[in-house]
Amino acid sequence: MDKKTFDTTTISPTFCILPWIHMSTRPNGHMRVCCTANASSAGATNDKKWGGEVGIVKNDDGKPANLNHTDLLSGWNNLYMRSVRQAMLNGKVPPSCSKCFKEEAAGHRSKRNWETEYWNRRVDTKALVSDTQVDGSVPPKMYYVDLRLGTKCNLKCVMCSPHDSSMWVSDWNKLYPQLKNASLKEVMMWNNKGKVDGASYDWHRDNPEFWKQLYDQIPHMRQLYFAGGESTIIKEHYDLLEECIERGYAKKIELRYNSNGIEMPDRLFTLWEKFKRVRFHFSIDSFADMNDYIRFPSKWPQIEAQLSRLDETPDHVEITIACAVQMLNMYYIPDFIKWKLEQNYKKINPWPLGAGLMNFHFVYHPAHLNIKVFPRWMKQRIRKKFEDFSLWLQANHRNDTDFINSGYGIKRLMGMVSFMESEDWSQRMPEFIEYIQKMDDIRGTSFVKTFPEMAPLVVRPNNDPQLSL
User: Fold this and answer.
1) Is the peptide bond before 430 cis (omega within 30 degrees of 0)?
2) Distances (CA, A) of 461 to 455, 458, 464, 467
3) How far, in Å, CA of 118 to CA of 112, rounded?
4) 445: which residues sit within 8 A by CB, 6+ positions away?
5) Mutual orientation of helices 376-396 and 410-421 as an angle, nearest 10°?
6) What angle separates helix 376-396 from helix 333-343, to the nearest 10 degrees?
7) Which of left, alpha, beta for 398 (phi over 0: left; psi -120 to 50: alpha)?
8) Which of 37, 111, 186, 413: disulfide with 96, CB 3.0–4.6 Å?
9) So what's the pLDDT on residue 10?
10) Alpha-helix residue ranges (DSSP H) falling in 260-352
11) b or e along 178-194 (b: 16 or more beta carbons within 10 Å of the residue's beta carbon)?
């Protein structure tokens, strides 16, 4: 088919590089446009806009492309992926990508922004666009692959679910039968224990054709990204690293992780030595008891010990804190950043990574933990705290032009506040209250004791009229 002539000097304002270079998986084997695309359907209600599976790559029959029965290359240029590329090149926002555009409209730097900027320095973007066929198909060269190899995990974070963590199954079995709120029950649903549309959490063990096709892509690969379950305890993660080394391509491949850092065997650090670069995003959402509550049942002294260990890694290893922004930690993020700065780490978010502070991404699922759910009075308190903290940073941390103008520093912090205020999801507050109370009962935790400044969210004194706002 003839190539369509695109203006490669002025690429469309809705362009994102990922559909041209990247493929992402879910722990159940679903393929998706990127790791955050399916959050585009999250909203104030469970209205399932665009069918509720937006961002999940569909086969031509409309069913999810799942690696239990779909091979990797068939998904790369199927109708769904071709349509996403065509929409972007024609200045349209694909439904799978609305999340990024909403974040950008609120002043937050989105995944589309930083991924496109990052990869534009590493691949020839104009050539990618020029090589796009009129039907949206592109050569099967996967520079960047995101792998979620099942759900094996050693934590059951409060914002997670059995869809992503095997540890969550026992808690879900206790929680789900107790739920009364219909919307909350829908959000927390785990249909047929995740085995829908041919899905299985063992897909990575049962599809040899996937591994053959993935290994054939190793010469093209520039980045391998591993996230939940927990890759550091999953055998196939190590098998893939060793395959890259054996084939002689490790020195040109960058490894990237989102990891809870609980188990990091010496073998992992030995393998890392063979790769071009390692970007380790340590998933930590607050400090002390607050982090233990959110990333249950982690223990803060162990997290601190792992931070100290990672702070001594070689120069080719980049360490950042990856904070999942949600209702449980938004109010305390200024305190968390202050704690981090006080530690004087040598290489954990050194400038300019996260502007020397830390990295952030929003929690969209479960929807009742998204920061848009806060009632107005709490949003006002958070705004005031972030405004005061921005002044504190300038007075006590940095006040130079580079820091003030950085898109990852104060601008990003205030963009998070604007994102929180951009929509009112407070009708989900009954879901939040029921969820927190039942999880405390199941786990023996206490939201009120751990987050005392937010206790009025679940226990509202009658003598404080502003709490009804």
Assistant:
1) no
2) 10, 10, 6, 8
3) 10
4) 293, 296, 439
5) 170
6) 20
7) beta
8) 37
9) 66
10) 266-272, 289-294, 300-310, 333-343
11) ebebebbbebbebeeeb
Which DSSP state fits 330?
A: G
pLDDT < 50 regions, the chain: 1-9, 463, 465-466, 468-469
Is the distance from CB of 298 to CB of 285 less than 8 angstroms?
no
Indicate the helix (H) or strand (E) that contains 322: strand 317-325
Looking only at the bridges linking them, the beta strands covering 31-32 and 254-259 are unpaired
Angle 219-220-221 from CA coordinates, rounded to 5°: 95
Place of tokens 């569909």: 58
The 8 Å CB, 24+ separation contacts for 67-71 are: 67/25, 67/29, 67/30, 67/31, 67/203, 67/204, 67/207, 67/210, 68/29, 68/198, 68/199, 68/200, 68/203, 68/206, 68/207, 69/198, 70/31, 71/207, 71/209, 71/210, 71/213
Q: Rounded distance, CA 154 to CA 156, Å?
A: 7
Report the C-alpha gap between 85 and 135 in whole angstroms: 9
The one-letter code for the residue type at 353 is L
- Residue 229: cis peptide before it, omega within 30 degrees of 0: yes
Helices and strands per DSSP (H, E), number in the chain:
20, 8
**CA-derived radius of gyration, the chain:** 22
* AA identity, residue 316: H
- Placement of tokens 């223990």 in the chain: 299
Residue type, 200: S
Tokens read off for 314: 């070689």
pTM for the model stands at 0.93
pLDDT value at position 386? 98
Q: 340 and 12 in contact (C-beta within 8 Å)?
A: no
Task: Name the amino acid, one letter, at 28.
Answer: N
Q: Nearest to residue 81, comparing CAs of 68, 64, 67?
A: 64
User: Phi and psi dihedrals of 57, rounded to 5?
Assistant: -65, 130
